[in-house]
Write a structure and sequence with these properties.
By secondary structure, this protein is of the alpha/beta class. About 40% of the residues lie in helices and about 15% in strands. A seven-stranded mixed beta sheet has the order 2-8-7-6-5-3-4, with helices on both faces.
Length: about 375
């Protein structure tokens, strides 16, 4: 049989997203309104009212193409992070930023370094350009930065670091990150993927965008999909020096962030009340979930994101088995067997009543 495309593309296992509510309702004969989705690390409050209003205003111009350069959104981000506008690259979600970085800086046969148990898209982006993956074993389910620095070889062109990390929720402090950046050769680009940064408690927050001035090989990647509640609109961005952003914008598709998404992102960026409400709910929900895990005697990884990774059994079928039992009860969570964690599930932090529904279903399942 004729085979199309390069072997390294055929070898890619497509990304598996969290199950949509409608699919679970059809599959198990459930009422959509009664289903709780805690699978995709979405903001349980949904989209901010400020963004809804901005989109309604922008809708009048939908017959025209979006601003390909995202002038107003870049200007808002430049002001927020105190960088020039030409230091910013816009993405169709931060996933797009990760893919753009791989295509811009890595050729077939060259190497990309990332950690075990880190975001699945790092592997997909690496495979997509025919690059060689150097996967560094994790320590306590998080990045071993010393080992990652040591793993960089002469062919390495890109390093992915997630902070906080998905799916494990681990966090690396500012001093460790900067020490790592000082070890990375100047010709190797580092992507610091901070999709969950806004969920960090104040004592853990630091402005990594400031490092971009010091490290010409650094890309800081952020998203509006999580804390800002715009997951369905797909808006991400990168901050890097012009020598890097120039190459990324040569790869970036024109009009990759649509008009409604740009308007919504500008509004959300300045909606401090919405961010504060989300952070407060996340902190309370984390306590709610982990208290239940403690009660049930379940191991979990302390998390700095808006989700918790919990071990639901000892055998390799535990995660899939418990996941199926939860689905039948109308609760959607995320199995992580594809990450090499078949005994675990990742639970997004929802509203108090959503967390309670999950806890009740989990207790029934484990009983």
């Amino acid at each position: 049989m004729t085979q199309f495309g390069p072997e390294y593309v055929r070898a890619i296992a497509p990304y598996q997203a969290g199950k949509p509510i409608a699919e679970v309702a059809r599959e198990f004969g459930l009422d959509e309104a009664a289903i709780v989705k805690l699978a995709s690390n979405e903001n349980p409050f949904g989209i901010p009212e400020s963004s809804k209003a901005a989109m309604a205003k922008a809708a009048a111009e939908l017959g025209r193409y979006p601003d390909a350069n995202g002038f107003e959104l870049k200007a808002a981000l430049a002001e927020r992070y105190d960088v020039p506008s030409d230091w910013i690259t816009l993405g169709n979600g931060s996933n797009d930023i990760l893919e753009i970085a791989a295509h811009a800086f890595v050729q077939k046969g060259e190497a990309v370094v990332y950690s075990q148990y880190s975001f699945a898209v790092y592997a997909l982006a690496t495979q997509g350009v025919g690059a060689r993956a150097i996967v560094v074993p994790a320590v306590k389910y998080g990045h071993d930065l010393d080992a990652m620095a040591a793993a960089i070889d002469a062919d390495t062109r890109l390093v992915f670091v997630a902070n906080p990390n998905n799916p494990t929720g681990t966090f690396i402090g500012a001093q460790e990150i900067e020490a790592f950046l000082n070890k990375v050769p100047s010709n190797v680009v580092v992507v610091l993927d901070e999709a969950y940064n806004e969920y960090l408690a104040p004592e853990y927050q630091f402005e990594s965008a400031d490092w971009v001035r010091k490290y010409p090989n650094l890309i800081v990647s952020r998203t509006f999909s999580k804390a800002y509640g715009l997951a369905g609109l797909r808006v991400g961005f990168a901050i890097a020096q012009p020598a890097v952003t120039d190459l990324m914008n040569r790869i970036r598709q024109p009009f990759n962030v649509n008009s409604l998404a740009q308007a919504a992102a500008i509004a959300a960026l300045n909606d401090k009340a919405f961010l504060a409400k989300g952070a407060e709910n996340n902190a309370a929900g984390y306590k709610q979930l982990t208290a239940a895990f403690d009660e049930l005697g379940l191991e979990y990884v302390p998390s700095f994101g808006n989700f918790v990774l919990v071990r639901v059994g000892d055998d390799d079928g535990a995660g899939a088995r418990v996941n199926l039992a939860l689905l039948k009860q109308g609760v959607i969570v995320r199995p992580v067997g594809a990450y090499g964690l078949p005994q675990w599930l990742r639970i997004s932090i929802g509203l108090p009543q959503e967390n309670a529904a999950f806890i009740d279903a989990l207790k029934k399942t484990l009983a």
